[in-house]
TrEMBL record:
<dbReference type="GO" id="GO:0022857">
    <property type="term" value="F:transmembrane transporter activity"/>
</dbReference>
<keyword id="KW-0472">Membrane</keyword>
<dbReference type="InterPro" id="IPR020846">
    <property type="entry name" value="MFS_dom"/>
</dbReference>
<feature type="domain" description="Major facilitator superfamily (MFS) profile">
    <location>
        <begin position="1"/>
        <end position="100"/>
    </location>
</feature>
<dbReference type="InterPro" id="IPR036259">
    <property type="entry name" value="MFS_trans_sf"/>
</dbReference>
<keyword id="KW-0812">Transmembrane</keyword>
<dbReference type="InterPro" id="IPR005828">
    <property type="entry name" value="MFS_sugar_transport-like"/>
</dbReference>
<feature type="transmembrane region" description="Helical">
    <location>
        <begin position="6"/>
        <end position="34"/>
    </location>
</feature>
<comment type="similarity">
    <text>Belongs to the major facilitator superfamily. Sugar transporter (TC 2.A.1.1) family.</text>
</comment>
<feature type="transmembrane region" description="Helical">
    <location>
        <begin position="46"/>
        <end position="66"/>
    </location>
</feature>
<dbReference type="InterPro" id="IPR050820">
    <property type="entry name" value="MFS_Sugar_Transporter"/>
</dbReference>
<keyword id="KW-0813">Transport</keyword>
<feature type="transmembrane region" description="Helical">
    <location>
        <begin position="78"/>
        <end position="96"/>
    </location>
</feature>
<dbReference type="GO" id="GO:1904659">
    <property type="term" value="P:D-glucose transmembrane transport"/>
</dbReference>
<protein>
    <recommendedName>
        <fullName>Major facilitator superfamily (MFS) profile domain-containing protein</fullName>
    </recommendedName>
</protein>
<dbReference type="Pfam" id="PF00083">
    <property type="entry name" value="Sugar_tr"/>
</dbReference>
<dbReference type="GO" id="GO:0016020">
    <property type="term" value="C:membrane"/>
</dbReference>
Amino acid sequence: IQMSKGWGYVATFGVFGVAFGYAASFGPLTWLLTSEMFSTSVRGRALGASTIVTYLSASLVSYTFLSGQKVLGPCVPFVIYSVITSASVLFAYLAIPDTGDRSPEEIEADIQDMWWWRQSWGICTKAQHQDPAGADAAVSTKYASMDELPEQSKQQVIV
């Protein structure tokens, strides 16, 4: 791909920006947040799911980058990826609570209070927890018991 010297600098800055930005934020942050936000009973599955999402996202970028440069020009893919990254930063600000020195239960309570999750998960605003005896420790604030939840919501809560 032939480009002017100015666009070459923009593209180079974009490459370094993506590498630095990922290494300083979302790369290690996914591992840290996943390990802090989930209890040990589901932590392995949560780490697996976040790893799959991370690798699929990286694969999508790798798959679309060169063809995007060929079709759209040398800088447009960087603009597209930076818009997506900016949306991710906004999501992190709106939907990820501070996890420092806090238990998963405290983090979950913060998540329940966050605007993003109240809007996104309107039916069930609290996940179900089982105490050692197997009784429901917490259910949705909208419903008094699990029996009142719609069947689809019960399946989401029990997972």
